[in-house]
Design a protein that fits this description.
The longest helix has 13 residues, at about 120-130. The chain has a five-stranded mixed beta sheet, with no helix packed on it. Strands 3-4-2-7-8 form a five-stranded antiparallel beta sheet. The protein has helices spanning about 25-35, 120-130, 140-145, and strands at about 1-10, 15-20, 40, 45-50, 55-65, 75-85, 85-90, 95-100, 105-115, 155-160. A hairpin with a 3-residue loop joins strand 7 and strand 8 (about 95-100). The protein is about 20% helix and about 40% strand. The chain is built from three helices and ten strands, in the order ββαβββββββααβ. The chain is an alpha+beta fold.
């Protein structure tokens, strides 16, 4: 198993994962994420958090055969992502790339995404907003969010599926 992980701030509550050359967004994939937490179109995956400011952990694990999501997962969905460059980018919508992962080869990776601690993180986030201290300021909130007692985590378990289909040149 090859593993990559990074922290990302879910600005506007979203973290995006895409092939390095597939940087244009997709409204339908974003709409799917609003319904099922993780949504994609084959080139983009959107991870939808319940809060916009506390860093989440994004883990991408490559397998020969993906294991089942763990019992403690809050949810899971099947996903696939095609990478023609063999580089996946983890992007923070408001802040830019958080990191990238080199894949062993270009192609389609198909497996599932699962997540945990989303609700607990959202509850902590709301509690920090609902119960400010007498000297509340932006620094207090930033410090509280850095010290969240749980880690909201999104895991992509992806085995290699197959090579990308050749792109036909319309000019020929």
């Amino acid at each position: 198993m090859k593993k990559y992980k990074c922290k990302a701030t879910p600005g506007r509550r979203v973290v995006e994962i895409y092939d390095a050359d597939a940087y244009l967004g997709d409204d339908d994939a974003m709409a799917a994420a609003r319904i099922q937490v993780v949504g994609g179109n084959g080139y983009h995956l959107y991870l939808l958090s319940l809060q916009p400011d506390i860093d989440v952990e994004v883990v991408i694990r490559l397998w020969d055969s993906a294991p089942q999501p763990p019992a403690q997962a809050e949810g899971s969905v099947p996903v696939n992502i095609e990478s023609e460059t063999a580089i996946l980018v983890v992007n923070q919508l408001e802040y830019g790339p958080a990191g990238d992962m080199s894949l062993p080869r270009p192609g389609v990776y198909a497996g599932h995404a699962w997540w945990e601690n989303g609700q607990a993180t959202a509850d902590y986030y709301q509690a920090t907003l609902d119960h400010p201290t007498d000297d509340t300021c932006e620094d207090h909130l930033t410090e509280a969010w850095k010290n969240c007692p749980v880690t909201e985590r999104y895991v992509l378990d992806l085995p290699y599926s197959h090579a990308s289909e050749p792109v036909e040149d319309e000019d020929l």
